[in-house]
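Q: VWFA domain-containing protein, please. Structure only.
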Amino acid sequence: MSPVIPFWLLLILAIVAFLFVRLSYGQQTGNSDRVHRLLSFFRLSVFLLIVLLAANFQWVRTGSLSRRPLIKIFFDNSVSAGYHQSISKQSLVNGYQEILNAVSELTYDESIDLSIEVFTFGETVSTLSGSPLGMGVNESSTNLSAVLASSSEVAGDEELNGVIIVSDGQSTVGADPVSSAGGVKVPVYTVGIGEPLRMVDVRINSVKVPIVAVRGEMVSAEVTIESFGEIDQRVHVSLEKGGSLLGTQIVAPGGKGSSQIVRFQFEADQVGNEEYVIQVSSVKDEINIDNNRNSFSINVLKDRFRVALITGAPSFNTRFLKLALESEPKLSVEHFIQRMNEWEPAIANFWRQSYDLIILDNFPTSTIPSRWSTDLSRKLGRGKTAIALVAGEALVEDKLLAYLPIFGLQPFGEEIGFGSQFSVEAVPGSNDPMKFFELDWSQFPPLSPKISVEPGSEGMTTTAQLSTLSPVPLIITGKIPSFDQKNQTVRRSVFTSADLWHLYFRGKGAEANTAVKDYWASLLRWLVAMSGEEDRYFRMTKSAFQRGEEVMIEGTFPRLNTKQLQEGIWWRILHPDMGETLVPLTKEDASEMWKGSFIAAEPGRYQYWTLMGDEQFSIEEPHGIFLVEQALLELKNVYLDKESLEGISESTGGGYMPWSERLNLIDRLSIKSRKEVFSQTVDLSHWPPFLILLVVFLAAEWALRRGRGLQ
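A: Structure for VWFA domain-containing protein:
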């Protein structure tokens, strides 16, 4: 014990305090009254305690705390642990019980007072209540990193002496277990289940094939086959479409983790989204045959598109339209021109043929029979033909009224200034199919309105307008339900000014002329669905996945402008139970493919959309659907990953034992109780008894003085 201030100073202060009290009460009482003696005692005691408080004496208090040794045991409860050929499921749980019994025998040694905690692990780590004999060994994934993270959690009076992990080392989710072991400060002893030789398995690892093809093209599919275990037989790799065999090859898998590439070449002969299946025959002793089959799709596009250009009266617009049509070599154009009451060539050819796109140019005129609208509606109802209208000076608006339902239009409700010219502006936020094309309308001359119409169907939208007090629709595009097949949509577009040719022939320079021609060429390609029904092509790498597996999507956008690239491309996924997941898609420079992935945590039916920025989407019309099955992902990796288990033990100072030597781990365990000695420095000023004594003396003096009526 030592004071903060010198002893001699304390002695002087104590003597001064004594003399002060003595003289003060001695003058009042003459040292004869017993009460005043008590008052002198209390006051002197208080002064002396204050002096000691100022001295702030300190001393060291020592003690000890016994920590109970603790061993944690983790048993693998995943599916793969029970599928090893050398160990049956019953033998496995019996072995778990043997390990637990052997460790439990150490608790009979009273000198060490051992505590044991037992857990099971798979997707999560759980406390084992009861015997290991009741374990299901049925969890669909394994997270060894979670085991290592939870192994260091102990109660305050326990000392973790070691961790025992019994597993095949297969970690299908979570971080790398060997890296995670670096945070464990006690020895980790691992017992390996099974044999290092991987279970026999032949699987389709990947299929490289184009997402989009043109009808008539030869398509190449590159299939990577992986094989594991000891395999001494050949397998058949076949390609099918709609149940028809397109090709087959025989390969001899090498096993032991080797891979082989098989190539198929076939013709894309049918337009549409074509489904293909790659299948590999199974081999002897193969348990998981679900990965022997893989399906993929190719969006097959037309190689030629037929266009009918119907001109009621030739004009400068006609010349521009022909320039735009000729710029696209895949368009085959038949031009029908009305001259007086005749058509060149004969209009009967038009009614007999089918077309992908019909363009009404400067039509209808005064000489067109009224039955034309009815006949045209009937013709359009027989297929998915797109139709466009370009107004002209000879167009008769009263006759156009009968054609408005064909285009999903209705008369414009506002008065417009015919003959006046107005500047052109884009309509912000519109559902413009040409949103990929960046066109600066301010570089073009003003235009005059010719027909007063506006969208009359939900699928039609104004994408450009003439700038007035009440803006006049200039370009109206969209999709409306087919006349005969309500579950299908057909594409429509209308240009309401007769001055289309001004944009090209009176534009502000060559760049503006090229831009407007490219814009119209792109609009024509959209109308005929030259790049397919949609403006994006994405597919899942498989049609069905297993729970815990990485789900991947890949695809292409035919065109994207700078703004859309800045806003990003997103994969929006919807699951009934999990809700919405948003995954960013990234573009691979080498393949020009947009790709994204996520881990399917729950089984079920998923809907998805591929979106640009904050693009809106319809819940009722997903871009695609995929299934996640309940799960045999664990069976892809049924073998002993000895290297991982050894790495965990080596990095923590523990040891690895094969299953056959599992009971030998008892000899390796180093168990000892630890008595922790601690010391604590106590300050007199913070010592509760001292402070209580000071308060008692002060209170006693106050009570005695009040009782005697003293101040």
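A: Brief note, in case it's useful. The radius of gyration is 44 Å.
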